[in-house]
Amino acid sequence: MNQPVISLFAGCGGLDLGFSQAGFDVIWANEFDREIWQTYEANHPQTFLDKRSIRDIPSEEIPDCIGIIGGPPCQSWSEAGSQRGIEDERGQLFLEYVRVLRDKQPLFFLAENVSGLLHQKHRQALNNIIAAFEEAGYWVTYKLLNAVDYQVPQDRKRVILVGYHMQLNQRFDFTHLIPHSQPLTLKDAIWDLRETAIPAIDKCKTNGNTCQIPNHEYMTGGFSSIYMSRNRVRSWDEPSFTIQAGGRHAPIHPQANKMIYFDKDKFIFDPNSPLPYRRLSVRECARIQTFPDNFIFDYKNLNAGYKMIGNAVPVRLSYELATTILRNLLNASEKTVLQTEIMGLPLSLR
């Protein structure tokens, strides 16, 4: 069974790993950030990584595939950012995604983005994006999902857009994603790591191979007033706060008491906490994002590790989406011959 997919804006490859675990073959990926290259190549040895800007890659140099996955940069849509959306250069990378999709004509695509994409001020831009996908030949459905519902020990809301080629005569149905009734907690995810984390060297530099567990080191240093504006501690029996793309905003380890409200937009650390306040380690964040322990992150500065992990799609959520898509495609193959007759591609799902 041949199920090649390509990955755009791949990052360290959380989305790619979930699709691989579901049975897809990620044959080609694109990532322009040089800080990520070594991590991606070490953990996805079967995938060719194209390191050019997507703007510089002609569509004919990208392999044929049955699916395109990836989340274009989301900073311009972030609720915490300026929300410039499609007017921002990074927002316009959506159009490069559409360009590749239009030229390659796979059976499906999946894109992930932050919840800010659904902000009312971006309604027209979102409509334009969906219209562009439809003009490329795809029926699009989208939904705001919380990863905690899909065996990810973290509250993490993201917009998932899935498009099926119109010749498949079906749309992705989010009701086929079955939420799990019992959320995973921080204790489920990182309890066994609680006594082995070590601080970074000189605030942000890695300890390298001296970590007993790879990447199990945490950023030190002060906390900004923005960080201290609300509680940043979840208990062991709760899922984590969202893992963000930066060490300074990593949640506090659950060994400490929850922070105490002091004044409007101001919390303080509990002086009676039985254990000290520290940020989650890089490995703990990776666990919460459901990366396996044998997925090793390469960096000199810890912030690069936190950034890779925080920008990734949780592996388990990716797997759930991928298995649902694969099941849909296999069902479609019972009704339609998904071979060269569909789009002239030498592909088969039978």
Walk me through the structure.
The structure is a single chain. The protein is α/β, with parallel strands linked by helices and 350 residues long. It folds into two domains: 4-180 and 313-343, Vaccinia Virus protein VP39 (Rossmann fold, 3-Layer(aba) Sandwich), CATH 3.40.50; 186-311, DNA Methylase, subunit A, domain 2 (DNA Methylase, Chain A, domain 2). The protein is 25% helix and 15% strand. Strand 10 (260-263) and strand 11 form a beta hairpin. Residues 75-79 and 338-350 have low confidence and may be disordered.
CATH architecture designation of the largest domain:
3-Layer(aba) Sandwich
Principal-axis shape equals: globular
Instruction: Give the CATH level 1 class of the largest domain.
Output: Alpha Beta
Question: What would you give as the CATH superfamily of the largest domain?
Answer: Vaccinia Virus protein VP39
Overall radius of gyration: 21 Å
Distance between the termini: 6 Å
Strand content: 5-15%
InterPro entries: C5-Methyltransferase, C5_MeTfrase, C5_meth_CS, SAM-dependent_MTases_sf
Active site: 74
Family: Belongs to the class I-like SAM-binding methyltransferase superfamily. C5-methyltransferase family.
GO molecular function, one term: DNA (cytosine-5-)-methyltransferase activity
